[in-house]
Amino acid sequence: MAEVLKPVLKEAPYPAIAVVAPRQDPAGVALEKVYSIGALDEKSFKDGDSFIVDFGEHYTGYLIFDLGWAGVSCDAPARLRLIFGEVSTDVTQPLYPYKGWISASWLPDEILNVDFLPQQVRIARRHAFRYVRIEVISTSSNFSATFRNIQVRAVSSAGVDRHQPANYDSPLLRDIDRVSIRTLHECMQTSFEDGPKRDRRLWVGDLRLQALVNYASFNNAALVRRCLYLFAGLQRADGYITACVYEQPTPRIGEVVLIDYAALFGCIVLDYLHATNDRDTAAELWPVARQQLELALNNVDAQGLFVAPQQDYVFIDWNPGQDQSEALQGLDKQAAMQGLLIYSCRQGMALARAVGREEDAARLAENIALMSQAASRRLFDSALGVFVSGEHRQVSWASQAWMALAGVLPQQQMAQALEHVMTMPQAVRPLTPYLYHHMVDALIRCGLSQKAKKLVETYWGAMVKTGTNTFWEAFDPENPMSSPYGSKQIDSYCHAWSCTPSYFIRNGFT
Amino acid sequence: MAEVLKPVLKEAPYPAIAVVAPRQDPAGVALEKVYSIGALDEKSFKDGDSFIVDFGEHYTGYLIFDLGWAGVSCDAPARLRLIFGEVSTDVTQPLYPYKGWISASWLPDEILNVDFLPQQVRIARRHAFRYVRIEVISTSSNFSATFRNIQVRAVSSAGVDRHQPANYDSPLLRDIDRVSIRTLHECMQTSFEDGPKRDRRLWVGDLRLQALVNYASFNNAALVRRCLYLFAGLQRADGYITACVYEQPTPRIGEVVLIDYAALFGCIVLDYLHATNDRDTAAELWPVARQQLELALNNVDAQGLFVAPQQDYVFIDWNPGQDQSEALQGLDKQAAMQGLLIYSCRQGMALARAVGREEDAARLAENIALMSQAASRRLFDSALGVFVSGEHRQVSWASQAWMALAGVLPQQQMAQALEHVMTMPQAVRPLTPYLYHHMVDALIRCGLSQKAKKLVETYWGAMVKTGTNTFWEAFDPENPMSSPYGSKQIDSYCHAWSCTPSYFIRNGFT
């Protein structure tokens, strides 16, 4: 079913618009125009020379250019190195030595040997980029290399943004919406990818947020449906869907289950049903969604508390201290997972009812009651006015956000907890836009629309102000150069889970 | 005309036969089998691992293999480095840092990024190799790379060796003939290339020797005709043909005239006429051949001596001291060029007669007489019994060889000069097989067949004894690790001008 729904990608050419070079400025490294792309036609480059072209927008696709020569004679091959950059630091900071802990094979550089010049060069691999740094490694003493008609054959399955607002509350929100939509556009390929640079893969957590923005923009519901079937068709032996699946060379199950991601599967189906009224698909997928909840609920003890198992993981957010002691630095996920599971069961209940499975809904209602009671009694610290998590009674944004979305306490009390945690210096803050999304969503659901808007303007706005065309996988406003992977060069700067401001903006923060 | 004659290459697959590894032996580095290629199917390779596959024969073509993975999950691209080797040192000595003076873009390595595994990988560039070193640069911690069905799609336009002798005088001569024919086979593509690794280009000097061996083996006369028309169709404004021409992306004139190469053009046409009786082609090409002789003769002074001009060069042989003072180390080319030009005029005279141009022949006869007289009177040192060259009266094999081929003195006297120079320690010896060919040819023409055979057995035999499958661009038996380009790694180990032993062997050294 998923393969039947596989979209044909739209491909369109876009030319590079300028040659740029780094300029030191107080905010870091900026790229500024050195000359227009037309002037490149008159230039030639010898061994060791390099330049950076700017496409003016983030594209996902295939780089093409005419490689020629100038000089006495082209009597040898040309060897080039290309580095693709989504943001300026990708092409201004050295790629190597690389010390991150994700595979170096993701680093976006290519060594290219071209035997006979002139010829049109087409990079066979898809890259995600706004900038390309082109270095001439070697020609011969008899010629230098020329570059013309540099363009990208850009691909996407997104189509047309049908729901762009006529007006925005502020220029900043307009910019945030534009960057959000571009981020989603770039991640929509033959599936919803998490990032077109890396991992280029369909993840449950990203899909859920992408789908929400998609309904408010491109409204390509068929692609959501394809992705739902990809997960449903690739369950693990025990019934769990994995946190991600692979599309190429043939669809294949992922290696890891994240219990929170699995539990949220039904939410995606419910959102799809609301957006499309496609009850047949929802009914067909309900058994898979129910199974995810059942498997997650197996980890709830008799008192109604979620207890993390040994073998599968809970995500919630990246930990800031991946490489340090969990006890000291890490996010404790107990309370957030408790809230997330209650939330997922509520959505599951709504889905069960919508497809006529009242018995399933009733059973979920019991789970919700038990877990909600446990949450409010055991995890809410009434002295502090916030939820606490784990044996160290950690306070975090994550716990408050998911408990609020779960509706464990009256709205007024949840709103206070949310406002309070945002003022607590010791509270663990989100690292990724993924968790910021849930914080914004929670603020809205608790009637704090202005605070929600403010958080979007502050957090995503800070990324916009760097000049980025797309939103990033991870962004810590306190430490913009940090990376959850130990190296900025491996980071994805166009990342699906970061595209959700448009969902809020286009729904008026309600 | 040349393009009409462009051949369709035959393509055939050959599998790799073993995985090999270096073993130190007294003669240098040898590669020995570690396991059969079938055993590779069971192995997998992580970051930093490498292995060398052996195809058992020299091939020119496109490497193909099935790249797969083993482990938990293939969750990242694979980055590989391939190094192609014609001989063992190519894959056992480091390629970098490279200090040769020819462009580093000829170094035969590729960095390869493969996004989705498993897939069949086909290297888009043509390479020339017997060995391939495969290094895994990066995978991810979740998988290692596997390699299966490693094969080469080998290309050549040579066809079938129709004239292999039934018997040889010795096993060594059989081996020398086999390696010669393989060398030619590999250099026969859409033109006669000098070397399939480098420069992959049609040179006058190589073509002449290749054509001779070709008539005695594959007898692909159409390819010779194509190459003759490529040169004739790409004359420089002053009428000279250039020393080489380029085929790709479209036929293009070379940058340098070598006067000796240009003068020899008519010899190739004459050999072609003898091999094919294609008088029409010979007649059509005669004006170009005559023009080359006329242009070369412009440099002969009133006394009949060739005086090298400033603007164009004479090749004869590589100089051992390219990077040192010419006066101290270099071959003085005056006498050799004098002999070569007389020889070329003699061949031109025969060609002119064969196509009915008696007037042209008569004019050349006058030039031959004048230059021969000058050679014997001014360049022959009767005290030493050898020809001398230049103001330092240098003695070299080159001078004796070309004077003998020119028939300047009676055969008996020339034979003495040849035998004598071979015993003189201070005489400048040949560096390349190209000049060794002319020495062997001269010995045969002076009735010294046994000495000719001995020289073939000694010089080419020493290469065979290294285990090579093809003959090399340059080989100095006194200093096997030297390179005329400052680095062995850039040398071509399958080089056209080195394939001529088969011509001598198959003609019985007569």
UniProtKB/TrEMBL annotation, chains A, B:
Residues 17-154 form the Glycosyl hydrolase family 78 alpha-rhamnosidase N-terminal domain. InterPro entries: 6-hairpin_glycosidase_sf (IPR008928), 6hp_glycosidase-like_sf (IPR012341), Bac_rhamnosid6H (IPR035396), Glyco_hydro_78_N (IPR049164). GO terms for biological process: carbohydrate metabolic process. Pfam families: Bac_rhamnosid6H (PF17389), Glyco_hydro_78_N (PF21104). It comes from the Bacteria. Residues 169-505 form the Alpha-L-rhamnosidase six-hairpin glycosidase domain. This is Bacterial alpha-L-rhamnosidase.
